[in-house]
Every structure is written in structure tokens, then in C-alpha cells.
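Incident log, entry 3
Record: Acetyl esterase (273 residues)
Problem: checksum mismatch between cached and fresh output.
Input:
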Amino acid sequence: MSLDRSTPARGGSGAPQWSRLILPGPDPVPVQIYRPAPANGPPAGFLVWAHGGSWQHGSAAEWHHATASLAERSGWTVISVDYRLAPRHRHPRAVHDVLTALSWTAGQAAGAPLAVGGDSAGGTLAACAALVARERGLPLAAQVLAYPPFDPTCSSPSYRRSPQAFPQAALLRQAWLAWRGNGEPATYDEDGTRVYSTPWEAPSLAGMAPAVLAVGAHDPVRDDVDSYARRLRRDGVPVRLLHPPGAVHGDVLRQDSPVLDHIARAISRKDLS
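Fresh output:
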């Protein structure tokens, strides 16, 4: 494990402190860790976060301001994962990297709430990691997902309502193909755990962590998110579904992101369920 730096995420004594670590393992995983300012007391919990970028782009460094802001607004320590990218690294490698970060963070949390989350493609990874956590008996306080795509065919009506809106269905289908190939329903780890590339392929979502879901009203992936919320509720999983006014896909990268505001408020509540 290597420590690169520990410095305020931005100026001011109330800013989160951040550091970069390499988590050890067969496939070492770089992460950036954002801790709320010590003056604000101990962290409310630990949130492992996967950035967006169509599974092929992005990095923890590019998401620095978003994850630092999330830590500051929520009071949670945020662990931002530099997972391996497609097409060089296809499913399930990115999910494995998120799971490595989850396992390490569970050892750091010392009984504090532990959650997994992400935006866009990272939200898909986080949901898949939450399924594995369920199978392995790792308790999670929440899955916190910002506008994640779940349907590899991109065929729901919301993709057609605003055909020029980002992400366009044709481009997103290509991204799915680059990440999951021809889309085997699941791969299996050595312990027999199934690792899905989308939770839509899981026969049941029962027993998953409570969900905080955020998506804009006109986001092309809205139907994916709303459908996931309905299925979670049908399987007995508590859901908080948020439609922040003015939110767009990629919203967490905006300085005045309503999505970050809404999910930070949601996870700041003591009762996530």
C-alpha cells in the first residue's frame, strides 16, 4: 500500500483531506480517499465510489472535485476507485476492483456504515458489486447510484424521448459491447459467486442493500433507473428514488450539481432505509 499525498481537497480548514493509495492484491487497485475535515467530527460512514465514463473513460483524478464535494456535503469518507477500463479490461474486472475497495474499506470502517455507489457506468458497477456483497454476506448500509444505465439494449422509451440528449442510445450500446462483449449473463468467481454485468440479469434482488437512486427527469437512462426502483421495491428492498430538478446525465461533474446535493442529503440521514 503506498501513500502519495494527504492534502486539503481545496482551500479552507473545512475542506476534506484527501490521499491516494494503492490497495494490495493480485490486481492492485488505486484509490483516492476523501475524509471530511476533522473539525466536523468523525465521518458519518464510508462510501466506495465508482466514477462514470461509459466503462471506458474517466478516472478518480478526473472526478476529484465531484468526490471531494460529496465527502464535504455528506460528511462521509469517500473512497474513489480507479478501476480498470474497457475495452482492454472487460467485465468482470471493473466490478472486481470495486469489490477490492469495498473489502479494504470494510476493514477500515470499524463498525461505521459502509456503502457502495457510483455515477453513470460507475453506478452500474456499484449495483453489481452490491449484488456480490449480498451473496458474500457483506452488510452494506446503502447502494447510492446516480443515473446508472442498466439495459444493454437501450430500448426503453426514455432513450427515444430526447434522441439528441446524452447519452445517445447508439453510443451507449457500443459502450456496453466494449465492456461486456456479447453479454454473458454472469461470470463466476472462484467461490462460486455470480458477478453480473447488470443487476437486471439477476433473478432476484431480495436482500440487497437499501437504494438511493438519482436521475434527471429527461435523462435517457431514466426508465432504467425507475424500473430498477420498482423491481427493488417488489423484492422488498427499501428505495429512495430522487428526480432532482435540472439534473442531466453527467451531473456530478457540475460545480452546482443538484444530484450531489440530493444524494448527500439522503445519505446524511441516519436511517437510510
